[in-house]
Each structure stands twice: as structure tokens, then as C-alpha cells.
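Lab notebook, bench 4. The sequencing result for the construct came back, and we need a structural model before the next group meeting so we can plan mutations. Quick request posted to the team channel:

Model the 3D structure of this chain.
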Amino acid sequence: MSSDIELRVTFQPSGRTVHVLPGTAILEAAARAGFVLLTPCGGGGTCGKCRVKIHSGTTGAPDARAHRLTAAQRREGWRLACCDTIESEAVIEIPPTSLFEHSQKILTGDAGHTLAVDPVVRVTTVKLPPADTRPGLDCLDAALGETLSIDPARAGELTDRLRAGGQQAHIVQEGCRLLDLQPATAPAVALGVAFDLGTTTVVGTLLDLVTGTERGVAAALNGQIPFGDDVLSRILRVRENPARLPELQAAAMCSLNEIVGTLCRQAGIAPERIVHATLAGNTTMQQIICGLDPTALGEIPFTPAFVHSFEVPAASLGLAIHPAASLYVFPQIGGFVGGDTVAGMIASNFDRLPKPTLLVDIGTNGEIALLHHGRIFCASTAAGPAFEGARIAQGMRATAGAIEKVLIRDGDIHINVIGNTPPAGLCGTALIDTVAELLRHGLLEPTGRLLLPEELPAALPEALRRRIERTGDDPRFVLVPAAGDRAAVCLTQRDIRELQLASGAIRAGIETLLQRAGLAATDLDAVLLAGAFGNFIRRSNAQRIGLLPPLPHERIRFIGNASSMGAKMALLSAAERNRAETLRARAEHVDLGSDPGFLDIFCQSMLFPEEGAAL
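Done. Here's the predicted structure in C-alpha cell form:
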């Protein structure tokens, strides 16, 4: 095992730094740093959109696919992130045009569409006659040619503001509701926040509703985690004791407010400047944050409390932004297929794609959507928290000290540790990598049984042979031996079983939808991987364990946190909200629990593919 050969890579202009193994693709290193690059060709080197510039350091020999760059461009330092590898410490510039989310003044989706900034919150500048002595709201109505409404308790305050501003002001309104009145002596400030509320993590993005410019992004763990790792555990808490519902709602809201506080500090603004918010999450998360009882989701037929989108006063839920602001909650399709799936379809332009396409968001709760001949089939499957490192003996989230990459090279294990620190455990990507490598080298059977020391192949290198240890009747694979006070980091037989359950659930959901549409996996034009975890997995390893179908890699594309991006699009565009409702109405929910063939497919999907069955 070696982790001391990791190379430091700095990405400009952000200055973010990661440590990776030699031979790592620039695309993978960028993902580890949190950047999602444009790869409409699926990383096949044919579109040329993932261009980066090397300021210092060396890369591998030009990939045969990298013909989209001329010799002159390569001399200038330009590389294709999907084709070139990192071979030394490097400083790499990522131009804005290579980012999947180009967040200067527009948002760009996977299909390259441009989003016009046309939010439901509008800002208008008015100038009234100085001698006008009518009440402030009457003055504004006359100037705007429409009748505005306002909380009566705030009417006097806004009239005073208008007078103090010399009868000139920026009017911030949502529909006919007057939200704010700002002096015209300075530029108007109208901000919104888009939330992606996940079972494990929460992401919030602050956006300027006038220009569409991103002002900040922050993330936090979902405060509901102490109530259970997955949605079913949290539903059970409420079913057993209805008094738990406000506790769960408050825990999630605490995370949202934590993010609001971070965003406000980043932007140097007061929370009252945030005049609107959108939220996308799975069905359980959306219902709990709205204070709606989720227990029906834990009982057949898994009925959600609502399907249409709606707005609720943010203050009524405890969201600490402008007191008159609204929170828009995404529509839900059915069962556990919630607003995050709808948001992901918006972000990927899913409904406008011409050929069969699969959208997969891999997480604690895996959502899957299949497009074929204009029909959209959707399903959700409880993958469990293994991909987040939970229920794994030495699993951990993708934070400093987590092993995130594992490969076998030159007869032994090589690892990549986040933060270039001593390894403390392994995260989901390393779990997939390790199992894939054990399958390739004959240490693990397709049934998921890890071989005992006496059963290992005779040709296995001695360094690998020593890594199989027996603990009672069960073997374990040692990734990092114990050293001093530091315990060994190992993969156990039970860990492998947990991965089989998680991977099998996702793959069984995919296969069930394909059968419903009358398709084979090979008929798919593209597989779009969404979600923070999906962006980091290595396609060949995910295919080796059977998590993803055996397709050419160029058909498997990473689209980043599509739920977050969809929430941003809905924040900036009223038209995208209308499209969200249209997509909800078109989607056909497939209840996997009641599908007669799902259990058989799931049992088969828990087996790892035989050698040669996966690309």
C-alpha cells in the first residue's frame, strides 16, 4: 500500500487544492475539488468542452481521443480533462466555459440550453411626485398601475421609507404582494436561496434575482441524522410518536438556517435581503420540512401528502429570511419519487432529449427516471446509507482522512486519501473501488463471498495475499495495516453484504423500469448520473459491481447535483416552475414494492457480474 505518492493539484481561479494519485484523470481530480465539467460526450474526448489549462506541472502522453486540441493549443497548455492524466504536482486553470454550471449570469444545463432570468420576484424602480401626500401604498399602486397588497402591520413602515427616500424607491414584489421597498440611492438588492434538502446533506445557493449571479454556496449535514440514517427510520419515529414530527422539522430547519447564516456572511448581507426561496428534496424530506405527517409514506400504497408544487410563508416554517418571503416547494411524482427527481429532470433537460435516457440519482434514497418515446417512468429504491459510509465497519463520509480511491497496481494496493492525511476509514467511492478490484483479482466471488486465506489463487501476489486476514470464521481485507496507535483500516464480509444490498437495489430499479418500457440496457443512449456521490464514482468500477449497466463509458455522463441546479433554475425562472408541474403530470410512477417481478430482479442484482459481463 502506498499513499505517500499523492500529488498536490491546485485549481484556479478558486485556489482549491486536492491530492491525487499519479495517473488520475484531470476530470476526476476536478470532481474531487468540487467542479463538474462539461462532458456532453460522456468523457469520450469528442466534444472538446472540458478544456483546462496547465499552468505548471506535467500531464500524461496525449490520449488518442484528444484530437480536438491542436498541437499549438497543447503547447499553450490546453488539455482535455477527460483525456489527460496528472503525473506531477500541478496548477490547473478551469475556464468558466468548461463548467457544467456556468453561474455568472446564466445557468447552463446538460443539453446546453440558456436560462433567461425571469423570477417570480420582480424589482421595479419608481419615482413619485414630491407633493403626493397620499398613503405610500396608494402612491405605489398609481405609479405601477396595479394594486399591491401588504401586511397591514408593515404599511406605515414602508410609507415612512418612501418619504425618507424622496419619493423614489426600488419596489420588490412577488405577484401583487409588496415584499420590500428600498431607497433608490443604491442598487436594488433582491436575493433568493435555492435549497437541495437531502436525507444526509443539505446544500444552499444564494442567487441575485436581478442578474442571476451566484453569490455563494454552502452545505451542511441534515440535522435529522440522529433520528435515523434513512427516510424509513425517520418515518418510523413519527409513526411511533407523532410528537417527533416537530422535532424532525426543527432539526432540518436548523440546517437550512445554518446555511442561510453562512451564505449571508459570505455575501456580507442581512438575512432580510433574501426575499424568496425554493426547495427540492425527496418526498419524505419535503413533507417533514413543511410539517406534514410522513407516516403514509411508510405504508402501502406509500401515498404522499401532496403532488402539486406550492408556496408557503417562509416565516411560518421558521426559515430565517425576509419576514414576507415565500418558500416554493417542488412538485412530487408519487411514493418516494419527490421534488429532487423533478428538479433533476429540469436541470438535465430530460423531457427534451430525443433518445432513450436514464437519469439516476445515487444516494441513501436512489431515484431513477427513464425517458422513452415521450413517456417518463419513475421509481425510487431504498439503497440505504452504505454509499455515504454508514453501516460500514470503518466507513465515513467523504471528508478529510477518508480513503476515496483504491486501485491494485504492481501487485499491491494503492490508495488516495482526502486531505492527504493519515487514513481513518473509507467512504462510498473507496468501497466500490475495493470490491471491484477484489473481483478483478479473484479474491471475491460473484456471490459476494470473500475468500479465506487458504482459498486464494496460487498466482496472487504475496503482498495481496497478506492482506486477507481471518477474524473468527470470517475473512477481512486489510487496506491499511495498523501502525502505532492507529488501527488498521479493513473491509469486512459484512461491509461487502451492505454494498450488495445498496447496489442491488439501484440496479434492480433500473432493470424494472427498462422492462416496463420494453427496453434493454444496450438500447439506452445515455445514463445521466446525478447527485454529489454519483459525480465521484468511477464508471468502470460501478459497472464491475453491477451498479450501472454495461454500456460504453461515453454513454454514462456526470451531471453533478442536478437537484440543486433544478432548484436554482426554479428560483430564477417562472417558466421552469411551469415546466416542473408539466413534468410531474407526465411522469408515470412505478411502485417497485408492488411490481411482481421486482423481488426476483433484486435477488439477481445482488450478485456481482461474472468477469467479462461488465465493461
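The chain has five domains: 7-98, 121-183, 191-329, 354-385+505-605, 387-498.
Will bring this to the meeting.
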